[in-house]
Design brief:
- The protein is of the alpha/beta class.
- It has two domains: 164 residues, Glycogen Phosphorylase B (Rossmann fold), CATH 3.40.50; 144 residues, Glycogen Phosphorylase B (Rossmann fold, 3-Layer(aba) Sandwich), CATH 3.40.50.2000.
- Helix content is 45%, strand content 17%.
- The chain contains 14 helices and eleven strands.
- The strands form two sheets. The chain has a six-stranded parallel beta sheet, with helices on both faces.
- It is globular.
- The chain starts with a strand and ends with a helix.
Length: 322
Amino acid sequence: MRVLFIIPGEEQGNSMIFAKRQLKSLQASKIEADGFYLSSRTNPLVMWSEFRRFRKKLSEFKPDLIHVHYGTMTAFFAAYSNLKPLVITYHGSDLNYLKDESLLKEIFRKILSQLAALRSSQIICVSEALKSKLWWKKSSVSIMPMGVNTDVFKPMDRADAQRKSGIKESEKVIIFNHNNAAVKRLDIAEMAIKEVKEALPESRLYVLNGGVQQDEMVALLNASDCLLMCSDSEGSPTLIKEAMACNLPIVATDVGDIKQTIDQTSPYFITEQNPTALSKCLKKILASPTRSNGRNRVFELKIDEQSLTLKLINLYQNLIRR
């Protein structure tokens, strides 16, 4: 079986890293998989050039099906530039409403996502909440989050992790991911940490803005005391599962599938999206620092990369047999 992934952005770098990791996981299995990286979704001239390059790729690789990651123009491009069986994975902001986007841009992006769904042979949503945002073809939806590589993201010696990440032993570090400013709400996180520091002055917020390499991320998750996530919306955030695989405690708001994913781990807190509520939960974790049982939960839920790759392959095989 040959599967061609379409991923927005460049092949190198951390953009859409979860899709790139899924592609590598498939390549390590019995599936022959390759990637096509759509370099532009807005420039008509570049899009025409990309269409011609894509048609050439189809001719050379001869895939049995196309799997496109992310909706909006990327999924629309994949849906209406070929007739191959099409799998679309929706990740969150391609269907969720973004407050910071202009209304016209937001409407246009969402319409493209919905129109692409009409041409799909199979839809994957990373969470049940995201499935509810589709206008049609809900019967064709499978719920499948992105998996975490538990061979890479795993507990390590705390002192060694602190040395590698430059974190002092005396610090109480809270990891916060700000790679999507439109939804992550750094403003709320900073206000929460300000309240935390009044009681625990050695606390600090470690803001991730992209560009962190995988081995660095593993060290950071092991060196830190807590992960904070207070987004306006999410799909199924990969960082949550990476933190769990490293047994890092989590404080988060109830968005996407976070609550269902971290339920039955300890310690963790799901709370309201306001600084005071978040700071109270953070202070409880920082006051009695301990690691969580999140890694065990990853295997119980079968959200490790290996389990989800097998599930994805089974989905492909069923689709081809139709």
